[in-house]
Design brief:
Structural class: alpha+beta
Number of domains: 2
CATH superfamily of the largest domain: Zn peptidases
Shape: elongated
Bound molecules: (2S)-amino(hydroxy)ethanoic acid, manganese (II) ion
Number of helices: 12
Oligomer: single chain
CATH architecture of the largest domain: 3-Layer(aba) Sandwich
Strand content: 15-25%
Largest sheet: 9 strands, mixed
Order of helices and strands: HHHEEEHEHHEHEEEHEEEEHEEHEHEH
Helix content: 25-40%
């Protein structure tokens, strides 16, 4: 399975870096070709050539630390380090290998690599726990290739609606052209197989840095709705069409974008609305746009707050479309309910953070994570790491190796304490 593209541990860290430092260096290595689909910056989308190259590299690093490695029918990569008894239920440590476009190096891969380093610490000490440890590299958390997110963790959690697999990317490539959709749901795990899910992830926000802390225990993940909006007006000549005769799909979209911003700004601080993709098919400088498309992402810690805001925004959109005589289509892409983390695992993560020498601190996640999907299958916990300036979904994303060392120590303490809880009486 090893190819010339492999980057060995020593090559990445110039020798035996310690686990957290090595994890950070490996994330940086995975941000470069062939592990990126773009020559400039990092873009790694589900099932792309860069995705497969990065999976091969992760598989090699998993095998290096004594894990058996497999891919499931959703093309997730899974490493397994057996417990004392073969086939024992597993603690799953995971995150996602796919990225947004022009991404930072740490959003996703860091949680996978810290899982591999936690297993490295166990295997180098020849330690076996009363449970197995599995490391999941989920394939499609961002939804940056197909118009759906969290597909592969939903397959694992068994909550995937097969209709969600009927998707095509921007080039018209269907998911069914790349994977066998009939067997895709066989990626599902049974609840008894997994005792808990732990995800380490950069905070992607400013709270830990402002508090002067390296680590945080996540209390829950915000609810999110995602829509695709299409507008239809009348294409026309930019030079000959009077302003009051236009059915302009771009100015209509622009008014709607600002309306979404106004509704969210008027709400509580954790209510956010984002238009991240705007498209003008067949757009040209001298053409009044007849069509436009855009995405709408609405989130809040409380699903009722999120839903009221989304309703208000869509009402504003309908009013704008009516006044401008524009056709409008609204497709809900996904609805992810708020996901509280498991109280007992949060306590364990606090204790592990303290044992690692850091002050336990709790915070909400405004960002979505595979953990919110895995919560349907098993108790979940998330460990946040400070990231510089709270910057993420941006090449400037940065993690201090010392913070990754702290996170690895906390994860190792978490595994030890979970093991102690599950030792036979
Ligand atoms: O959108 C999110 O919150 C995550 O980065 N996918
Ligand atoms: Mn992420
Ligand atoms: Mn992300």
């Amino acid at each position: 399975m090893v190819t010339g593209a492999m980057v060995t541990g020593a090559m990445v860290t110039g020798g035996m870096g310690t686990g957290g430092t090595r994890a950070v260096a490996r994330c940086a290595a995975l941000a470069l070709p062939p592990f990126s689909d773009s020559a400039e910056g990092l873009t790694r989308t589900y099932l792309s050539p860069a995705y497969h190259a990065a999976q091969e590299q992760l598989a090699a690093w998993m095998a290096d630390v004594g894990m058996t490695v497999r891919r499931d029918a959703a093309a997730n990569l899974i490493g397994r380090y057996e417990g004392r008894a073969a086939g024992a239920p597993a603690l799953v440590i995971g995150s996602h290998i796919d990225s947004v476009r022009n991404a930072g190096a740490y959003d996703g891969p860091l949680g996978i690599l810290l899982g591999i380093e936690a297993v490295a610490a166990l295997s180098s000490g020849r330690v076996r726990m009363p449970f197995a440890v599995e490391v999941y590299a989920f394939g499609d958390e961002e939804g940056s290739r197909f118009p759906a997110a969290m597909l592969t963790s939903r397959a694992v959690a068994g909550t995937l609606d097969p209709a969600a697999l009927d998707v095509r990317d921007r080039d018209g490539v269907a998911l069914g052209d790349l994977l066998d959709l009939a067997t895709y749901p066989s990626a599902a795990r049974t609840a008894g197989d997994i005792i808990a899910y732990l995800e380490a992830h950069i905070e992607q926000g400013p709270v830990l840095e402002a508090a002067g802390l390296a680590l945080g225990t996540v209390t829950g993940i915000a609810a999110q709705l995602r829509f695709e909006i299409g507008l239809t007006g009348t294409a026309g000549h930019a030079g000959t069409t009077a302003m009051d005769l236009r059915r302009d799909a771009v100015t209509g979209m622009a008014e709607m974008v600002l309306a979404a911003e106004a509704v969210a700004t008027a709400g509580p601080v954790d209510l956010v609305a984002t238009v991240g993709v705007v498209e003008v098919p067949a757009g040209a400088a001298n053409v009044i746009a007849g069509r436009s498309r855009f995405t709408l992402d609405v989130r809040a810690g409380d699903a009722a707050v999120r839903d009221r805001a989304a309703d208000a925004i869509l009402r504003r959109f309908r009013e704008i479309a009516g006044r401008r005589d524009l056709g409008m289509s609204v497709r809900q892409v996904h609805d992810l309910p708020a996901s509280p983390c498991d109280p007992a695992l949060m306590d364990l993560l606090d204790a592990a953070t303290a044992e690692a020498g850091h002050k336990p601190f709790r915070l909400v996640s405004g960002a979505g994570h595979d953990a919110m999907i895995m919560a349907a299958l098993c108790p979940t916990a998330m460990l946040f790491l400070r990231c510089r300036g709270g910057v993420s979904h941006n090449p400037a994303e940065h993690v201090e190796p010392a913070d990754a060392e702290a996170a690895l120590e906390a994860i190792s303490c978490f595994i030890r304490q979970l093991g102690a809880q599950r030792e036979p009486a």
